[in-house]
From TrEMBL, chains A, B:
A GO term from the CC aspect: cytoplasm
Cofactor(s) this protein cannot do without: Mg(2+)
Its job: Catalyzes the phosphorylation of D-fructose 6-phosphate, the first committing step of glycolysis. Uses inorganic phosphate (PPi) as phosphoryl donor instead of ATP like common ATP-dependent phosphofructokinases (ATP-PFKs), which renders the reaction reversible, and can thus function both in glycolysis and gluconeogenesis. Consistently, PPi-PFK can replace the enzymes of both the forward (ATP-PFK) and reverse (fructose-bisphosphatase (FBPase)) reactions.
Keyword hit for Cytoplasm: yes
One Gene Ontology molecular-function label: 6-phosphofructokinase activity
Annotated gene: pfkA1
Record HAMAP family: Phosphofructokinase_II_B2
This enzyme's EC code(s): 2.7.1.90
Site (Important for catalytic activity and substrate specificity): 114
InterPro entries to which the protein is assigned, alphabetical: ATP_PFK, PFKA, Phosphofructokinase_dom, PKF_sf, PPi-PFK
Descriptive protein name: Pyrophosphate--fructose 6-phosphate 1-phosphotransferase
Originating organism: Candidatus Berkiella cookevillensis
Compartments it resides in: Cytoplasm
SUBUNIT field: Homodimer.
Length: 420, 420
């Protein structure tokens, strides 16, 4: 019997280091005689359904090594959540058909909570259908909201970007505030969890105190208390730096920047907390302000990725291969912290059934009493995650990111699958 | 007679490398036996008027060297333009009194066009008043809009940041566009000149073509043509990346994102082109979009400064000292390009009278025929300016930027000066 192949798929919002995980998977699997080839789904699970599979075995070792330094999803990702098996069995059966057609024995799904859930379901159904697939979920999400794992690959790099950007912008505002901008607002990602916003607090020791206010999704927005705090900071320091999570919300659950549109997972699409707060400050406090919205720049900023984060991402890719070789099914490898200072960690694994649909937000003991900052415990947790730089190579002033040329597998199934 | 001192002042919006110029001035002046001390005005010209002067001679060589790697204005900057001598002679006379009181013989004003104009006026009046000051303007502005100089210190680093950010975000969108975001908009600085927006085009060779659309202040915004171009890019590539200058405007001169408020120079304060374009794309094309506004992050991003830019900034500081020693009055040192490939340059100087109030925008021969891109000539001009990395040192995952402790000179004048 020919050796079973691996199908690797990227899912959901991409990060600065998800390709480092791909690099870990592919380089580890190449060295294993028991394994077949590593295929990558084009555009995530959509490509698996459409039988659009990329043969990574033709990519050079240099390209695979270069993936460790390249942001985005090199094979394409997608926002597409499989429905429950009861609601749409057809999709799962199609996946199994594709797996069968290409002798795939291992499915590595690299994503957040929704993806772990999908990997779990695929594992269950494949057994039911008599073509058991070893399904392994590999964690990834800048939101840092998965349970069990100490942190999620992608987060450490966003955290570093946000901490550095906050430090740099704070020095800028401090030098201008006497006659110009008094309030600076930076909007960061984090729909339901304020981990990214929290990371901006790591700038405080270097900046002399900024950011002065952090808005978390976990803390109900109180307009009056917020405006008081802005005034206090401006009086005390001459300026105020605010880092606002996109998910900051009012007591009734309404987001500060509700935009009405929804993404493919049915989540409300956010954006615009910063201009909303700027308008508030303008009308109520009459202070001169500036605002920035980092959006994709933060999660794609491979040029300033955390070395710790890159190492995590790569190691988790390698670990997935190791788990596959041990025939561990329906599990997710994760980062287990041994100590914070010095930072020590190793990899363990947990059953997908325990991971799926559990969201880890910033706990109350990590948020300062006034709701606008972080505690020492949170600082101790976050600090090691931004440690170390992992610079890409440069040519002509720009990073040498790889953009692999795809060699697609020939389709074997008669039917096309149409994504609805 | 005691040796004459230098007064150095930072002006206008700060940059990632204005402190490198300060570092160049101070380190060059320290080695000159003919010169007294270097004083720095606290918060720019406001500090000079208030007699708030910082003694830089007590700062260690390590701190001065560290300034080369530190963004923002270490001594404080300001947005405060002196009026014409006829309108407000009092301010100029006050400056001369402060210069007399502290035996200042040289005034180095580090700023954009307005500052060169002020330095020129101070030079004229000081002669009229019988206390001649050698006034030297040192160029600085991320807008890159000063005449004579090949480029303005601060611009190369913003250009590099914007090119890298555009590259990274473009890879991100490319990997998600099959099922998610189709249009990404990045708003960058550049009120009247589109140099920063133009620099995003340097990403094109690495990104496979993005950005697809650049909006310049120099090109009148045509909604229909713009929407057609967005549609074309999405059809051809699956996605569209847009880099919009904050100064993009309609045929009637109205900014796309007029916000109504004005800064201290009387300029309209901008912000919000990106969300405005996003709304347009949403309502007219019904495409899924994301947008980012880089704002201060771009001009403060010392972590990814251009080495070329840092070298320019430092060398211009040194050159100012050399000009002072040669008693060249009312001049500005500038970068003269000798060749583009390889990039070679040297420093020359020009009379301030020729610099003041001349604005250099992106010329028509640098903008592509359809108005949405740059020409090869522009690419050749821009490419060397982002060359080389100049990384700061890091500790605990964050850059080691210096924040000097200020030793203020004792005030000698009886009268306080109140800024109106």
């Amino acid at each position: 019997m020919p050796k079973k192949n691996i199908l690797y798929a990227q899912s959901g919002g991409v990060t600065a280091v998800i390709n480092a995980t791909a690099s870990g998977v592919i380089s580890a699997a190449r060295n294993q005689s028991e394994l077949g080839k590593v295929y990558a789904a084009r555009n995530g699970i959509i490509g698996a359904l459409r039988e659009e599979l990329i043969d990574t075995s033709v990519l050079s070792n240099e390209v695979i090594a270069g993936l460790k330094y390249t942001p985005s999803g090199a094979f394409g990702s997608c926002r597409y959540k499989l429905k429950g098996i009861q609601e749409n069995r057809e999709e799962y059966e199609r996946l199994i058909s594709v797996f069968k057609a290409h002798n795939i024995g291992y499915f590595f799904y690299n994503g957040g909570g929704d993806s772990q859930d999908t990997a779990h379901k695929v594992s269950q159904l494949s057994q039911e259908m008599g073509f058991p697939i070893t399904c392994i979920g590999i964690p990834k999400t800048v939101d840092n909201d998965l349970p069990f794992t100490d942190n999620c690959p992608g987060f450490g790099s966003v955290a570093k970007y946000v901490a550095i950007s906050t430090l740099e912008a704070s020095l800028d505002v401090a030098s201008m505030c006497e006659s110009s901008t008094k309030v600076f607002i930076l909007e960061v990602m984090g729909r339901h969890a304020g981990w990214i916003a929290a990371a901006s607090a790591l700038a405080q020791k270097r900046s002399g105190g900024a950011p002065h206010i952090i808005l978390f999704p976990e803390v109900i927005f109180d307009e009056e208390k917020f405006l008081d705090e802005v005034n206090k900071a401006v009086k005390q320091h001459g300026y105020c730096v605010i880092v606002a999570s996109e998910g900051a919300k009012y007591a009734d659950g309404q987001f500060l920047a509700q935009m009405g549109s929804k993404d493919a997972f049915g989540h409300v699409q956010l954006g615009g907390v910063a201009p909303m707060l700027a308008n508030l400050i303008k009308s109520k406090l009459k202070l001169k302000y500036h605002w920035a919205v980092a959006d994709y720049l933060q999660r794609a900023a491979r040029h300033i990725s955390s070395h710790t984060d890159v190492e995590h991402a790569f190691a988790l890719g390698e670990a997935a291969v190791k788990l596959a070789l041990e025939n561990k099914n329906a599990v997710m490898p994760y980062i287990k912290r041994d100590s914070s200072s010095p930072y020590r960690w190793h990899i363990e694994s947990v059953e997908l059934s325990k991971v799926a649909n559990v969201e880890r937000t910033v706990p109350p003991e990590y948020i300062s009493e006034n709701g606008f900052g972080i505690t020492e415990a949170c600082r101790e947790y976050l600090a090691p995650l931004i440690e170390g730089e992992s610079y890409p190579s440069y040519q002509n002033g720009l990073p040498l990111y790889v953009r692999p040329t795809f060699t697609m597998l020939e389709k074997k199934l008669e039917q096309e699958f149409v994504i609805r």
